[in-house]
Every structure is written in structure tokens, then in C-alpha cells.
Amino acid sequence: MTEEYIKIVNKDIEYCKKLISSGNATERDFYDIVAKYEMEYPNIRRGFTYDPYLSDSSEQNEVSNVKVLLGKLELILAKGKNVEEPINQESNINSYPHININNINNNTNTINIELEFESIIESINKDTHIGRNEKDEIINKVKELEKIAKQKEDKCKKWEKIKPIAIWLFDKGVDVAIQLLPLILQILK
To answer: How many domains does the structure of the chain reveal?
Structure first.
């Protein structure tokens, strides 16, 4: 803070004290002081009970606001630097606090495919609408799919092995297809 700046702040502090001791401060008195500091301290108006820009009344006594302003000016002087961060002229960002929130959310959904096979076989065994021979045929296809799933091949080779099972599946009922299609898609991922 320069000597000249300190002189200006001291002068305004004395003027505020004079206004407070007289018990009478006009809108113009208050405005003249605030306007001087607004460029460097854009939030200097915070805490005032009255904003001269927003009122049509020139009758209001500004003593309470001058007291608040006096405290701010004394703090500026005491710190010897800005009470608030001044406007960043390059980015034109004022002194409001900036909060950066970084939220990285990685969801990994893994299906234990072995449990899926067991679950489908159990479901087929419990189905009372399917005959024993048909149940055995479906369970054999599920076991074939399980073997394909365990192989370390790329999805194109797996698809070639799954294709005959898929064709067979489309001849079966919708209930069987509903159970096996998601499993086939999981194998091909």
C-alpha cells in the first residue's frame, strides 16, 4: 500500500468519524466514500443496510452504514493490503469465492457369469411347463454357453460358436429366450 493510498484511507476514516459523531450522514456523504473504493473492493457494499443506488429517498440517515464503512476502512489500513481480493482485470472475475468441485464417479458393474449359469439352470429345473427331455436339452445348451464363456477367445470366434445355439434358441419359447439372450450378450462383451 502506497503512502498516498494510506493518506486517502486515513482521511476517509477521519471523515467517517466526523459523520458518526455529528449523528447525521446523508446518502451523498456515504456514496462519495463508497464510490472511491468500489473499483478495488467490489464487495465493499456487503453488510450495509441501505444501498443508495436502489433508493429514491434522500432523507435516510446513513450513520449506521458509515459505521460499517469505518470498520472496513480501518481494517484495510490495519492489514496494509486488500481486505478482499480486488477484481482480476484480465479475467474480469470479482472477489466472490470460487469453489471447484471435481466429482469422478466410476461405476463398474460386473456380473458373475458363473452364478448366472447356475441361476438359469436352477430356473429351468423348477419350471413345471417344460418336459424333462426339453429341460435336458436347454440345460445342455446352457452348459455349452458356459464352456464358450470360459474360453479365452475374441468375441468374433465366440460368436461363431454361439450362432448355432442362438438359432436353436429362436425356435424355443419366449421364456427360454428371455433367460438366455442376456447371457449370450454378456458372453460377447
So the answer is: 2
